[in-house]
Amino acid sequence: MAAAWAGCAGTLALDGLRRRADVGSLLALGAATGLTALTKTSGLLAVGPLLVLWGVAQLRLALRPATTDEGPASATDGAGSTSASPVPTASGLAGAGLTGTASASPVPAGSELAGSTSAGSASVGAGSAGEGRGAVGVVRTIAGSLLVLLVAAAVVGPFLARVTVEFGHPLGPPRLRESIPMERHDPASILVNALRIGHTAFDTPLAPLRAGTAGAITDGSRAIGVDPQDRAITFGREVFPVPAWYPDEDRVAFPLAGTLALLGAVFALARPARISPTAPVALRAYAVAVVVAVGLHTATIKWQPWGNRLLLYALVAAVPLAGLWLDALLRRRLRPGRRSVVAGLVVSMLAASALAGVLALSYGFPRRLVGAGSVFTTSEWDTRFLRRPHWAEEFRWAAAAVRASDARRIGLVQQNDNWEYPWWLLLRDEAGRSPELVALQSVLADRPPADPASVDAIVCTGSRTACAKLVPAGWTLEFRDYVGYALPPGR
């Protein structure tokens, strides 16, 4: 979802490279920014550079000389073709003036970000009018930027304010701030973190390749004085490397799509005019924004086995660069033999990438379409426990005992990310009303936990030891592998 919202923000930002934003666009851009932050604040690492790109483009459009595209008549685009409307007709990331072919909508004259230059002349009077209009345009751009930030703040502000009030920091309690964000920012540590993130993102089923590259990264990091397992740059107690090529939605790598996106970014930075002759500056600027987003990600987020899902927003932003590069590559005039080879390689990579996607969707884990555990043949309850099927019966066992005791107020004991939701389903009363669950633990000094003696029953997940510490004397504690419950005498 964070990648989807970041993609929306990118589309709107790219629309702003070629035309002034109206109120609707400003509201939409602010909403996309706020929804990205609300879903996963790391998505702002991509949205931030895109907003900077959008702001620079809007300023350039505000300062450009007056042109005919603002009058009632038709305008001329950067390629010299006439257009009937200044509003872009293409949609999506690739439709914002980055394509190499002539667009149905004009590229604003004089806008360097749009990849065009203005060769026209203007009178002294028109120049004075243009200067006045430019000043007004700058004010409008500043006001529009503030509106974007205001809308984004309106969407995510209440959430961040609540977190700040509860934990004293908008990013949550110290445990969370220390486990995910990088705690070291020296160049060597950032380089090692980037290499490990890249290794996991580009992982393949080829075990020798995986082992060879992981070994090179591990040895290289030690050579520059960085422990590859340093807790300051590694999530929790995880150990690099981990296999990530198999189709698990929490880990699956994207070597083919990632390689194409990487090549597209390299060529967009090095030779943008060969990919987009009519908008080379815009293409390079967008590629820079994508590279900056990836750089910010590797400098701020620790490596973790599940990091590929966190990087998905960057992949979504980079994929259009791959599409534009492939389009330009296939349009080039090559010798018949070379063209066949290039076309064959491109088709092979795209086919392999498509096949990998189909396999991930159809036979991926845990929510696959076919085979054992298919979402079409597995019950809603069992689908929740596909990763831990033996826990399903344990939850039922404990919930049945608590319901049979006629408990009304139930204490909850759990650790960091234990499974709580099954209790809300299993402990409903006959009318379907939610149970009264109260926490017997708290990490907030101003929100003390409930007294274990004030509840009718206790349900626990995770640690038997942690549960036993909170069970009042004389109560009966029953515990299996992951789930347990405790009842007072007489129940």
Give the count of helical stretches: 17
Largest sheet: 5 strands, mixed
Total tally of structural domains: 3
Shape: globular
Rg over CA atoms, rounded to whole Å, is 28 Å
Helix content: 40-55%
For the largest beta sheet, what order do the strands appear in spatially?
Answer: 4-3-5-7-6
Explain this structure to me?
- By secondary structure, the protein is mainly alpha-helical.
- It folds into three domains: 1-66 and 125-177, no CATH class; 187-363, no CATH class; 384-487.
- The protein has 17 helices and seven strands.
- A five-stranded mixed sheet has the order 4-3-5-7-6. The chain has a two-stranded antiparallel ribbon with strand order 1-2.
- A hairpin with a 5-residue loop joins β1 and β2 (82-83).
- α1 runs antiparallel to α2 (23-39), α1 runs parallel beside α3 and α8 crosses α10.
- The radius of gyration is 28 Å and the shape is globular.
- 33% of the residues are buried.
- Residues 68-128 have low confidence and may be disordered.
